[in-house]
Design goal:
Helix content is about 60%, strand content about 0%. The chain has about 675 residues and is an all-alpha fold.
Length: about 675
């Protein structure tokens, strides 16, 4: 089954007599499209109107531009950069001084991003409306939605949430590959206690690039592929509330990643991923790349959060109450509030830093009356909720898959929701634990220490729900279940090591060292990336109609699990022994542990490449067809045809239940298709 065909199987009712051929259709995803309404001429679903109008008019200018979207985007980005650089250099200075160069890079990359989006076609519709041109025909809307577009639709603007989910899969894996190469270079340099292949400045740039790029991708690693693809289906919607906005959140990602990588040609940046002032005020042009790239990611996170919130609140099918939402939807829904509320603080801080770098505003420079603590507070007000932007969707995904393999209901569904809500609220009350050693008022330390410790309570509730679901279960240890077990093991170590960093006395000893770095990797890579791999193995049969080789993925699992723990247990050890982060040289007695970490890191990199190779081989090169419902899940997404119809449902179900009733075998909703029999063998 061709993965490019995923989403082409729409089977909407034929248009009744009397439908006008060019009636304007609402954006796919609005209420009248998502839920069944009385059949009124002129108010049919978009796909139905498209059937009536197909071939009745030549392609519009907007559609012809969409066909060349990616090529036009590259041209637009190049034009935008040169125009912006020229204007910025002229506006501030004569183009030769540092302020003019900073302004040129900042404005150049900003207009480059705008030009890229314009080339993709994001401004076609609003400009056409402003000029009074006719509204798009239903045929144009169906084309924009990706209907019948084949592989080409993955390289242009499309409003089909399933296509966008697949676009996220490819982009995130590509950028994670680049970030992983950076990690291999870092570990190679640290084989010896003294510099061998890099200078201190280039090493700092390498560390900053690796960490920032990985943070960028981690922010969308679960919500991007699985949230966009499955949340509308799980709530009985035909699309997202704002389909064009959903597409925008993805197409902000490639320019952000490429702009960040361009910093190597502009002198790099020495601040690491946190961008701390006053280091950020140094006249290094690579810092401008960091600021624009991070602002694009922040904008994507914020808009994605807004879209998800509106979708879940307004587009739930009749009968889909909040108490019947799948736990994965709860994870994405609550995470969206974090993105919507936290990202503006980051965007504000970046705007202030650009004024420092172009107008010498000295907002973060003590000599000019500013304060670097202001940046730290604004950044971490975003940065610590961002950690839960990574982990809450991962926990939701893990709990969504867990009942499928334990063959019993999710234990403590409401407890899990309470834990997710608790983490969401408390995540805004802990950010200053990052400032324990950098000047936080002593009177505030007890509050932030206890609030940081308190967040372990709702997190523990979520963890207990997972353990309770495993208790006395006849667990099927299919490949996704192995990754689920690894997730729980790794997150336990990450949480345990985090306790020491939440307490002021121990944090004073461990802060700034490799103990923090290893803790962070256990909670993010050990949890989120393992959840990503579990989700890909589990959901690829639904997303592509292909399945990954069982024996190879099992071998890959053990390779990645053992090498991951070998790497970061070694780094926990060097952190306890006092090795600082972001430093290219270290004490001689730490070399054996660093060699151990590097060898395991090479094995870890090889095992991740193996996963990528299996995926490409089994999905693209030598496709292995998948069963219709290989895991025998009760989730509604598994009881739709594969490929999923363009608008998901012929008739939106109105009777819903939780998708975890494995004691009765009741499917979450009747979608009008026969459910595979339960009880057979699973891969």
């Amino acid at each position: 089954m061709d993965p490019a065909a995923a989403g082409d199987g729409c089977t909407n009712p034929q248009v009744p007599a009397g439908v006008q051929p060019h009636v304007r259709a609402e954006s796919a995803g609005l209420r009248d499209l998502n839920h069944e309404q009385p059949r009124v001429p002129g108010r049919e679903p978009v796909a139905a109107v498209a059937v009536a109008t197909r071939g009745t008019a030549p392609p519009s200018l907007s559609r012809r531009l969409h066909e060349w979207g990616l090529a036009l985007a590259v041209v637009g980005a190049a034009i935008g950069f040169f125009v912006g650089y020229a204007l910025g250099s002229l506006a501030i200075g004569d183009g030769d001084n540092s302020l003019g160069s900073n302004a040129g890079i900042l404005l150049g990359y900003s207009l480059s991003a705008v030009g890229f989006l314009a080339g993709m076609g994001f401004f076609n519709y609003p400009i056409a409306r402003l000029l009074g041109r006719p509204v798009p025909t239903a045929d144009d809307e169906a084309y924009l939605h990706g209907e019948g577009g084949g592989l080409a639709r993955y390289f242009r603007l499309t409003t089909d949430h399933k296509v966008i989910g697949m676009q996220y899969v490819v982009a995130i894996l590509a950028f994670l590959f680049v970030g992983g190469l950076g990690a291999m270079f870092i570990r190679t340099e640290l084989l010896t206690p003294t510099p061998t292949t890099a200078t201190a400045e280039s090493y700092l740039t390498l560390v900053g690039l690796h960490s920032t790029l990985m943070i960028f991708m981690a922010s969308a690693a679960i919500i991007g592929p699985f949230g966009n693809y499955f949340v509308p289906i799980m709530i009985g919607a035909r699309n997202m509330a704002f389909p064009r906005l959903e597409a925008l959140t993805f197409w902000l990602l490639p320019p952000a990643g490429l702009i960040l990588l361009s910093t190597v040609f502009l002198g790099g940046f020495t601040t690491g991923w946190t961008g701390y002032a006053p280091l950020a005020d140094q006249n290094v042009l690579g810092m401008d790349s960091y600021l624009i790239a991070f602002s694009l990611i922040g904008l994507s996170i914020m808009l994605s959060g807004l879209n998800m919130i509106v979708t879940v609140i307004t587009l739930r099918a009749p009968g889909m109450r909040f108490t019947r939402l799948p736990i994965f939807v709860w994870g994405v829904f609550l995470t969206s509030f974090l993105g919507l509320l936290a990202a503006p603080a980051l965007l504000g801080a970046i705007a202030m830093e650009t004024f420092d770098r172009t107008y010498l505003a000295t907002l973060f420079v003590p000599a000019g009356g500013g304060s670097p603590y202001l940046w730290e507070n604004l950044f971490w007000f975003f940065g610590h909720p961002e950690v839960y932007i990574f982990i809450l969707p991962a926990f939701g995904l893990i709990m969504e898959m867990l009942p499928v393999f334990t063959r019993r209901p999710l234990w403590g569904y409401r407890v899990a929701i309470g834990g997710l809500v608790g983490v969401t609220v408390l995540s805004f009350m802990v950010w200053q634990h990052h400032l324990f050693v950098s000047g936080l008022a002593p009177a505030l330390r007890p509050f932030y220490m206890f609030s940081t410790e308190a967040i372990s309570v709702p997190t523990g509730l979520i963890y207990l729900v997972a353990l309770g679901s495993l208790w006395r279960a006849r667990t099927r240890f299919s490949t996704p279940m192995l990754f689920i077990g690894a997730f729980l093991f790794n997150f336990l170590i990450g949480g345990f090591t985090g306790v020491f960093l939440s307490d002021v006395p121990s944090d004073f000893t461990l802060h700034g060292g490799y103990f923090v770095q290893a803790h962070f990797h256990y909670t993010i890579m050990g949890a989120e990336v393992f959840a990503l791999m579990a989700g890909l193995v589990y959901y690829l049969p639904k997303m592509t109609g292909r399945t990954m080789d069982t024996r190879l993925t099992r071998f890959q699992f053990w390779a990645v699990f053992l090498s991951f723990n070998g790497t970061f247990l070694s780094l926990l050890s060097v952190g306890i022994l006092g090795m600082p982060r972001r430093v290219i040289s270290y004490a001689q007695y730490l070399q054996p542990l660093n060699v151990s970490a590097t060898v395991f890191a090479y094995l870890l990199g090889g095992s991740m490449l193996l996963f990528l190779g299996i995926l490409i081989w089994n999905v693209v090169i030598r496709p292995v067809p998948a069963k219709e419902n290989p895991w025998e899940s009760l989730g509604v997404e598994w009881h739709l045809p594969t490929p999923t119809p363009v608008y998901n449902f012929d008739t939106v179900p109105t009777k819903w239940s939780l998708p975890y009733e494995y004691d009765t075998g009741r499917v979450a909703a009747d979608v009008g298709h026969p459910a595979p029999a339960l009880g057979g063998a699973t891969p």
